[in-house]
Amino acid sequence: MTLSLGWFSAVFAGFFSAHVLQRLCFPYFWRDLLFLLKVVRYGVTLELFKVTSRVRTVLDRFIQQAQRIPDKPFVIYEGSVHTYRDIDRRSNRFAQVFLDELKLKKGECVALLMSNEPDFLCAWFGLAKVGCSVAFLNTNIKSKSLLHCFNCCGAKTLIVGSDLLDTLDGILTTLLDDSIRVWAVKSHSEHTQVNTLLDKIDAASDEPVPAALRATTSLKSPTLYIFTSGTTGLPKAAVITHLQSLKAAAGFWAFGVTEDDVMYVPLPLYHSAASLIGIGGTIELGATCILKKKFSASHFWSDCRKHNVTVFQYIGELCRYLCNQPQSDRDKDHKVVMGVGNGLRPDVWREFHSRFGNIKMCEVYGSTEGNLCFMNHIGKIGTVGRSNFIYRLLFKYDLVKYDMLRDEPVKDPHGFCQRVEQGETGLLLSKVSAISPFFGYAGSKQLTEKKLMRDVFAKGDAYFNTGDLMSEEQEGFICFRDRVGDTFRWKGENVATTEVAEIVGQMDFIQEVNVYGVEIQGHEGRAGMAAMIVRPGFTFDGKKLFDHVTRELPAYARPLFIRLQEEMEMTSTYKQQKFQLVQSGFNPSTVPDPLFVLDQQQHFYIPLTDTIYQSIISGERKL
């Protein structure tokens, strides 16, 4: 008996010691393990698709949910409830019209230019039901960029929302000359060469089209093209396969969201976050989505209370806007328990928690076209994800040393990259493999190749270059530090500096222009700034430049600041030098060159004085 008690005490002491050791040295072990088991289990399901050739797509899952829970609200939009059955049947009508009127064929690509609304989903699903891939067009892009998008994905049909038809003014003739058919989601059109859809949809059958049209045998088949700004200037069409769509659709589920949750989606559907994670995630769970046409900080919490929202999608700027709203006694009067998104600054994160309650903020890191994703399932402030030895076994990534002055990775004597030490900042590279494929961009092998780095650590290897500087801390938390190259983020949108430079450089008084992003205290991301050389014999024209960028660029891409220089600094490889310009910022007391700021009231680029600078830094002047 004494021996048994001694054995039991020893075992108990051993377990207790192991538990204490685990809590002290590996405090996130069980949470990491359970999260990874979910991820691996889902991954195994996707791998089985490859073996059996029985691919279940996101659309298949939606149709399955429409049969399982037909009367459950799927989308609530501006007070109107649309059930799973409603969207399924209306998308059937779209599909019938696409077949009978538009004569679309399986495998064709169709461009979709629509704002957030239920018919965006019906058009998207309707196209998928007839076997077409869909190119989501950014509703902010204009003229030349819009035309470029058709060349990328090869679309010959454009479906445009009723509220966006006017944005085609000036390029409609060019579209028609290029044999692109334009169909408006309207019953009547003043444009004689623009076809109408709504009148035909109202008369169409809501019976399903043959399932064989949407069937696919490969996870790697393209289903969407989502445009992303990059270092090449004009938008790039990232190829989104069924594999990527399915992975994204599992995001909410991986974070522990259930079918009883209500999701709030205020982000634009043409971005992957709202469409793939938001709508796809809602479908995967069989949950309900509150869809907003546009984000409104003043209506956000009242919407959440009205619809009993439990989970919302965000970008960092969205949370900052909410924190800037006047305080209310009802700030913590809501049922929201989780936010899923990216780009949330630590200071805004803390203020958000203090103001609105201990909502778990789950950061997701990953680009639309990228082959790597980090998920901060712990919710630790200031981090974008977690990593450990198991994650590294599954997903090969590395942080390598990067020379900001030379704007290139640091190489060893043999020409290979060098890994950073733990805690140091480095360029994030993700190995391209069967588990983590990179599908690239439509229409250009050159653009796809440009995102890859080869012979990184050994001859013949290939890594996806994220263009992001990250660090991995002691406990395995991943922290975002900065972007490199020719892209910065402002107002929740990626801005391609070369695209902006090309448009700004069209002015006859500008000889050379270098566009970059500068940090502004209290603002997420970086604001656009353009250093330029005025052509000999000309003078800087602030009014002319204002009119030009307002006409040709979306608001988030317009340079807020201008810096006039005598000569442009170059790197050793003859690239424009941005690092020193970014570092020097836009303070007129420290920058020796003439500075100007975009003024929306005067419709002019006016001189940037110390007084105006202080009003920007203090937040008094709105940007």
UniProtKB/TrEMBL annotation:
One of its GO terms (cellular component) is plasma membrane. Residues 499-575 form the AMP-binding enzyme C-terminal domain. Residues 64-386 form the AMP-dependent synthetase/ligase domain. The keyword Oxidoreductase does not apply. Belongs to the ATP-dependent AMP-binding enzyme family. One of its GO terms (molecular function) is long-chain fatty acid transmembrane transporter activity. The lineage of its organism: Eukaryota, Metazoa, Chordata, Craniata, Vertebrata. Gene3D superfamilies: 3.30.300.30, N-terminal domain of ligase-like (3.40.50.12780). Keywords: Cell membrane, Fatty acid metabolism, Ligase, Lipid metabolism, Lipid transport, Membrane, Nucleotide-binding, Transmembrane, Transmembrane helix, Transport. InterPro entries: AMP-bd_C, AMP-bd_C_sf, AMP-binding_CS, AMP-dep_synth/lig_dom, ANL_N_sf. It is a multi-pass membrane protein. It is an enzyme of class 6 (ligase). It catalyses: a long-chain fatty acid + ATP + CoA = a long-chain fatty acyl-CoA + AMP + diphosphate; a very long-chain fatty acid + ATP + CoA = a very long-chain fatty acyl-CoA + AMP + diphosphate; tetracosanoate + ATP + CoA = tetracosanoyl-CoA + AMP + diphosphate. This is long-chain-fatty-acid--CoA ligase. It comes from Labrus bergylta. GO terms for biological process: long-chain fatty acid import into cell. It is found in: Cell membrane. Coiled coil: none annotated. Its EC number is 6.2.1.3. Pfam families: AMP-binding (PF00501), AMP-binding_C (PF13193).
